[in-house]
Amino acid sequence: MIGDIDDSKAPLLDHLIELRRRLLWCVATLMVAFFVCLYFAKDIFALLVQPLLAAGQGKLIYTDVFEAFFAEVKVALFAALMLSFPVLATQIWRFVAPGMYAKEKRAFLPFLLMTPFFFAGGAAFAYYFAMPWALKFLLGYEGNVGGVTQEALPGVGNYLSFVTRFLFGFGVAFLMPVLLMVLERAGVVTREQLAGSRRYALVGSAGVSAVLTPPDAISMLMMLVPLYALYEFAILAIRLTHWRAARLKKTTPTAKAASDTSDAAVEETQSEDRERSNVGPESPPGGGRVGGSGPI
Fold first, then answer.
1. Which DSSP helix (H) or strand (E) runs through 190?
2. At 145, is the secondary structure helix, strand, or coil?
3. Which one of 35, 74, 84, 184 counts the least CB within 10 Å of its CB?
4. CA Rg, the chain, in Å?
5. Residue 75 contacts residue 160 (beta carbons within 8 Å)
6. What is the CA angle 4-24-167, rounded to 5?
7. Could you tell me where the beta strands, DSSP code E, fall in the chain?
8. In Å, what is the CA distance from 68 to each residue of 71, 74, 198?
9. Could you give the CA distance from residue 27 to residue 267 in angstroms, rounded to a whole number?
10. Which residues contact 290 (CB under 8 A, 6 or more apart)?
11. What is the per-residue pLDDT across 217-231, written as a single tens digit (0 to 9) for each?
12. What span, in angstroms and rounded, lies between the C-alpha atoms of 283 and 296?
């Protein structure tokens, strides 16, 4: 196991050169993705305003001359980060992996592969479920208040901040099972500690929901419920992992004992064959002499 790291030893300068090469790959990928997304910025923004249209609001305004332009730049940058994340994560992994044991690589690589799927699942949940409910609730304050017409006129930059906050917040929140399983695999926490901290997890989920969502109860509940459900899912996944490991550990000694028994039987058979081969032919009468007992 030590050889896994010793074989990849390199001077500090080589590590710095490797780090520079990985950073250049990340920057180049991000720039290419940014300019591609900037070309399609209007189409991407048209996709982001669909929850607003579904909530009954068909108008966005901008009061600053540069607001619409910078909104497209922000859309392109946000989309570029989303699209280039697999490449960025791969470059980080290729820089870190040579300094890890083979067992550690096998342990952490599945969690790295699961990260984009959980993040995409959280963003999709926000886009298709949380955002429409939140927008209907927030836009429901339109109407006549004391003889004064109250009308919602969301700005382009304001709505973009709302959307990115929802998508990024839910995406990061849905990474909690991956984080908890990594911490458990690293020995920082145990399954028993996680199971005994459910009340604190509920309070923590409420705090995270309050920070990452707009200040309304509907948005907070839309994040709080799946966030705590993911906490329970992480405990269940850790329990299944331990059960599978215990089952493999139980079957491995049996297979090893059977292999040892088979090896012992083969060795015993070979020993008997060697003993037979070492026994010579029977000696003739007279002590082995051909001509009797007298001198030849």
1. none
2. strand
3. 35
4. 34
5. yes
6. 95
7. 143-145, 148-150
8. 5, 10, 45
9. 62
10. 284, 296
11. 777 888 888 889 999
12. 18
